[in-house]
Amino acid sequence: MCDVMTDLNSITEKILQIRIAQMMVNENYKDGQFKIPIHLAFGHETIAVAINEIMDDEDKLILTHRNIAYNLSRLGKLRPIMDEYFLKSTGLDSAKSGSMNLINPSKGIIYTSSILGNNFSVAVGIAMSLKIKQKDGITIVLGGDGSLEEGSFHESILMFKSLNLSGLLIIENNEWSMATKISERRIHIDLETFAKSYNVKYVKLSGNNPLDYIQKLKKLKDLSKKSNELICIEVMVNTLGDWIMTNDQNPDGKFINYHAGPAPTVDVKTCPALIKENNSDPIFVLINLLGIDELNKISDRIRHDLEEEMK
Amino acid sequence: MNYIELINNLLKEQVSKHEQLVIFGQNVSAGSCIGGMTRDLSIPKSGRIINSTNSENSLCGFGFGMMINDVSSIFFMKQLDFLLLGIDHLVNTYNLIRNHENNASFTIFPIVMDNGFQGSQSSSNNFADFCSIARIKGYTITNKIDAEKIISSKLISPGFRIIAISQRMFKDEVITPDELIYVNDENDVFQYNSGDDVTVVCFNFSFPYGKKIVDILKDNNLKCSFFNVNSPTPTNWTKIVDDVSKTKKIIIIDDSKSENLSCHSLLTDISDKVVLDKKIILKRNFDNTDWLNPIDDQMDINFQQVVNDLVD
Question: Do the domain assignments include residue B174?
Answer without folding.
Answer: no
